[in-house]
Write a structure and sequence with these properties.
The protein has 45 helices and 11 strands. With 1014 residues, it is mainly α. The strands form 3 sheets. A 5-stranded parallel β-sheet has the order 2-3-4-1-5, with helices on both faces. Strands 6-8-7 form a 3-stranded antiparallel β-sheet. Helix 42 crosses helix 45. It is flat, with a radius of gyration of 33 Å.
């Protein structure tokens, strides 16, 4: 709703599918405007359409005029409809004479045509900067009325999965089982009315997960609630067409269900097979509004929309209601009709098999097997959603429990690929609920198990846990995800060793997100099957004894079993990786990551660089996973150019195949690469795109990561409010799911925003626990990135006691350093900062961050005595110039150097540094930091140039901005006071503030600045 209930005038059409909350949207707008703090508050007029408002010409308009308080003698004459628009416009302007006006018209589509036309004419004449705003709510199951054409449309979208889950939990009073909640969220498709109806239907015990499995959450009765009587008004001869289109779109996979379409000729042929709808002579159906159709003409039902020869529903909820309301035999007949129509058109692909399977009333093993084979055929072009539907239907038709569980799991894999995490979990639960034979558990080995010793059942159980772990990694507690993935690795070790390796790598990803370095090493070392810390890629390790074994090297780990490691992981050159598959790439990645986590940076660089180079030369350019691992390796190495290149390749491949989870990871890596390159605006673009996708597809953990990235970008570009909004949202999910990486980034962003606003004490208090040695230290791969901010904050607060005592958090070397110097209070914090800087120096030497060496010199300068600081600052600036890395970090170094110079009265040098910092901040859009540079310039006696564009005026309060505009236009203080109804003393006070904030000294300079902004 934000963005459509703010200030300003104009008119909008508010629409959405039945039950989406159009009325709630209007109520929120009225409540927001009626309680606005601005002076004066906006007056609100509410009016609703209905049968009474459509009984006679202009009856709806008269109801609106009565609500506006228009005199009876001025109301329109039904015989002169063209004069009604000006009458309404006059009434709107009269009602807004004393205060701005908001008109909320609910169900405006129910008004008579003359009233809609009059309101539409008046609405199009409302100015965006005028005092009147009008919101016209219309039903979304049909096209917007022609009388409202040309007005901007606000569509109340379905709730994202996270918000839908929150609504279910709120409606259930918090007592809802997660599996039940996920089932309701998946069935509700973000429709608030449907979600609430499903919750109300279940007893408290069923909501808590007790009792038999849930019935179908959304049946015909529940779907018919929000739809109301829309279907009963449909003529009989259109029912078959509606059902044919609904059945055809049942398994369509579109980001927005309203975008799902089917060829109109195919729909008409299928409807004709059902027996009642007859196409026109040219095989098409004209789209004629029902009220203008000549007698006997077949028209397109108003629930359908026709465009470019394809037909679909205006509302996906209506499509589901049409399908659910049909009898089971009618639904099966519709699918058989669609299969026949497709075969008549020469199609023999997966959709035909799926429609045939849906037309089958009883389980048939042969049909299920054909469908599953087609769904798993990589040569067939099909979306993840279609493959998911095919595997799920094959599971329903399967005769034995192992195959049914296997196909449920395959369906869950496809659901996860398509970004439907809640659906994936439901399918996995159904895999465990597969019917068991007497005397056997759901997936225990039984007499029908095709593998020896139950290996098929073990493989299926392993795949179930693998997909469950991957799903929870997208949206769930990451510790639980890691446990499932480690279990999957053990179950798959014998029947599917490569997938077991993938499970271990994914378990290390989960441990990484949780900030558990030991957990990462545990997973990378085989999940407990080999000693933690052993690295097959380290030939000089005392625990590694290589034994030649043909094209592979066997490495005996600590007296345990021999592990087969590809040559590339044990020292092969780059050519061994060109065109290699993931069987080679993933072990190389694991070897490099293990060495990095163990602090063997030089040994880590070798396999990671090999992986990046191998991806650059790979012949399999369509492998998104290989590109993603290469992008991750490049980020670990600090090779940001390669990270952007391989990340972009992964993004392109993921778009092509429709892999939503790979899309999310690719955008995440690209956002990290751009953020570390200093290109914050581009990082924000990737993060905003990724956040929209993550919210739409229920990837809550990815959404938290994106919000943390956006908070970091906002700490450079925007004010503290935006940083706080992103950071608090990221922290909420991070605390629920154990996302230490996202939490550390969000805390770092908040502290950097504090530094930008001149609040170093708050920044030091926030960053201290993240960077000091000890159990409270932040994520092992992120905390060192925050060290420069911590050192800057500590240096700025030196001589003033920090809030709280840091002594309790000082451990090891940090405590020893503090004790050695006898430091207390802020001095102790400086000692701790010195120890942290030495750790930062070791990490900077690895080269994982191109900006780190210059940042290290800056940190040393902040802590150095006066006779060394100047040289260190200058060396840091030179290093920034040599390594690149964007304007922001260089400008921060110049700002700190300029501050240091100014406090030593070296004003000429200080102005040069501060001026360069100001230019750098303005170039990269760091407005808050630019304000700090301007303030330092003014404190040094320099008058900085006015801010480019309107950015300088953005720092003024609304009252100061109004005064600045009046003065710039030539008004005297007295004239301004009379205009604003304030005293001249108030104007004098605000004008002095304006001059100080903008750094101007006269009205002439102010006028020039305002003119440039305009």
């Amino acid at each position: 709703m934000t963005g459509h209930t703010g200030t300003g005038g104009g008119a909008w059409v508010v629409t959405g599918e039945p039950g989406c909350g159009r009325t709630a949207f209007l109520e929120n707008a009225a409540r927001t405007d009626g309680a606005a703090r601005s002076s004066p508050a906006r007056a609100v007029v509410r009016v609703a359409g209905g049968p009474a408002a459509s009984a006679a010409p202009l009856s709806g308009l008269r109801a609106l005029l009565r609500a506006l308080g228009a005199p009876a003698e001025g109301r329109p004459d039904p015989d002169v409809p063209d004069a009604s628009g000006p009458v309404l416009l006059t009434a709107l302007l009269a009602a807004s004479a004393e205060a701005p006006l908001l008109v909320c018209a609910d169900d405006a589509h129910l008004w008579d045509a003359a009233s809609r036309a009059a309101v539409g004419r008046a609405a199009r004449r409302l100015r965006a900067d005028g005092p009147v705003r009008m919101l016209l709510s219309v039903a979304g199951h049909r096209a917007v009325d022609a009388q409202f054409a040309g007005l901007p449309v606000v569509r109340v979208a379905p709730l994202p999965p996270a918000e839908a889950a929150a609504l279910v939990e709120e409606a259930a009073g918090g007592a809802v089982d997660r599996a039940v909640r996920d089932a309701l969220v998946d069935a509700g498709d973000g429709n608030p009315a449907l979600l609430l109806a499903m919750v109300r239907r279940l007893s408290p015990a069923r909501l808590r997960g007790h009792g038999a499995p849930l019935p179908p959450p959304a049946d015909a009765a529940l779907l018919g609630g929000p739809v109301g009587g829309l279907l009963t008004r449909c003529p009989r001869d259109q029912e078959d067409l509606l059902l044919a289109v609904a059945a055809a779109l049942r398994d369509e996979d579109a980001d927005d269900p309203r975008d799902a379409r089917v060829d109109i000729a195919l729909a008409l042929r299928a409807a004709e097979r059902l027996g009642t709808t007859t196409p026109g002579q040219d095989g098409t159906l004209p789209h004629i509004p029902p009220h203008t159709a000549p007698p006997g003409t077949r028209v397109l039902p108003e629930a359908l929309v026709l465009a470019d020869g394809e037909v679909g529903f205006h509302s996906d909820l209506l499509r589901r209601a049409v399908y659910a309301a049909a009898r089971p035999e009618r639904r099966r007949a519709a699918h058989r009709a669609l299969a026949g129509a497709l075969e008549d058109a020469g199609s023999a692909g997966l959709p035909v098999l799926l429609h045939r399977a849906r037309g089958t009333p009883a389980p048939r093993s042969a049909t299920a097997l054909r469908l599953a084979l087609a769904a798993g055929d990589p040569v067939r072009a099909a979306s993840p959603g279609l493959r998911c539907a095919a595997f799920a239907r094959a599971a329903e038709l399967a005769g034995d429990r192992v195959r049914r569980a296997e196909w449920c799991t395959a369906a869950a894999e496809q659901a996860l690929l398509g970004g439907r995490t809640h659906r994936a979990l439901r399918l996995l639960d159904s895999a465990f609920l597969a019917p068991a034979l007497p005397g056997y558990g759901p997936l225990d080995p039984g007499p029908d198990d095709p593998g020896p010793d139950g290996s098929a059942a073990a493989a299926v159980r392993g795949r179930v846990e693998f997909v469950r772990g991957m799903t929870l990694l997208c949206d769930g507690p990451v510790d639980e995800a890691r446990a499932s993935l480690l279990l999957a690795a053990r179950l798959l070790a014998a029947p599917a060793p490569r997938q077991a390796q993938n499970a271990l790598l994914a378990a290390s990803d989960a441990a990484w997100a949780a900030g558990d370095a030991a957990g990462c090493l545990h997973a990378l070392s085989g999940g407990g099957e080999s000693a933690v810390g052993d690295d097959p890629s380290a030939p000089n390790s005392p625990r590694a004894q290589p034994v030649s074994a043909g094209r592979r090297t066997l490495v005996r780990l600590g007296g345990g079993r021999a592990a087969a490691i590809p040559e590339a992981a044990a020292g092969a050159d780059v050519s061994a990786l060109r065109g290699a598959d993931e069987g080679v790439l993933l072990p190389v990645y694991r070897a490099g990551l293990r060495a990095l986590l163990e602090g063997r940076f030089a040994e880590a660089a070798r396999p990671l660089r090999r992986l990046v180079s191998g991806a650059d030369h790979a012949r399999t350019a369509d492998d998104a996973e290989a590109a993603l691992r290469a992008a991750a390796a490049a980020l670990l190495l600090g090779d940001l150019g390669s990270a952007r290149r391989t990340g972009a390749r992964a993004l392109a491949v993921a778009r092509t195949v429709g892999a939503t989870t790979a899309l999310a990871r690719a955008r995440e890596y690209l956002a990290y690469a751009e953020l570390r390159s200093g290109r914050h605006a581009l990082a924000r673009t990737y993060a905003e795109e990724g956040l929209r996708t993550a919210l739409r597809t229920g990837q809550g953990n990815k959404a938290a990561q994106y919000r943390a990235v956006l908070a970091l970008a906002a700490s450079i570009e925007s004010g503290p409010d935006l940083v706080a909004r992103y950071a608090s949202a990221a922290l909420e999910t991070a605390r629920q799911h154990g996302l230490v990486q996202a939490a550390t980034m969000a805390e770092w962003a908040t502290a950097r925003a504090d530094l930008a606003r001149g609040r170093p004490r708050e920044a030091a208090d926030r960053l201290g626990p993240l960077v000091r040695p000890g159990t409270r230290r932040g994520h092992f791969a992120v905390w060192m990135l925050a060290v420069p901010c911590f050192v800057e904050a500590v240096a700025a607060t030196a001589g003033r006691p920090l809030a709280g005592s840091p002594t309790a958090d000082v451990t090891g070397h940090a405590r020893a350093a503090a004790d050695a110097t006898g430091a207390t209070g802020a001095s102790e914090a400086v000692a701790v900062a010195a120890v942290v800087v030495e750790e930062f120096a070791r990490w900077a030497g690895f080269g994982a961050d191109p900006q780190a060496p210059a940042q290290l010199l800056r940190c040393r300068a902040l802590l150095a005595p006066a006779d060394r600081a100047d040289a260190l600052y200058r060396a840091a600036v030179d290093l920034h110039d040599a390594t690149g890395g964007g304007d922001f970090e260089r400008a921060r170094t110049e700002l700190l150097h300029g501050k240091w110079l100014r406090r030593r009265r070296r004003l000429r040098e200080a102005r040069d540094r501060l001026g360069a910092a100001l230019v750098g901040f303005e170039r990269c859009g760091a407005r808050v930091w630019a304000d700090q540079a301007r303030a330092e310039l003014r404190a040094g006696g320099a008058a900085p140039a006015g801010r480019a564009g309107a950015g300088g005026l953005s720092a003024l309060t609304p009252q100061q901005l109004r005064i600045a505009h009046f003065v710039a236009d030539g008004a005297t203080n007295r004239e301004v006071a009379l205009t604003l109804s304030v005293s001249t003393r108030t104007v004098d006070y605000h004008l002095r503030k304006v001059f100080a904030v903008l750094g101007v000294r006269s009205r002439v300079e102010l006028a020039r600045l305002v003119d440039r902004a305009r």
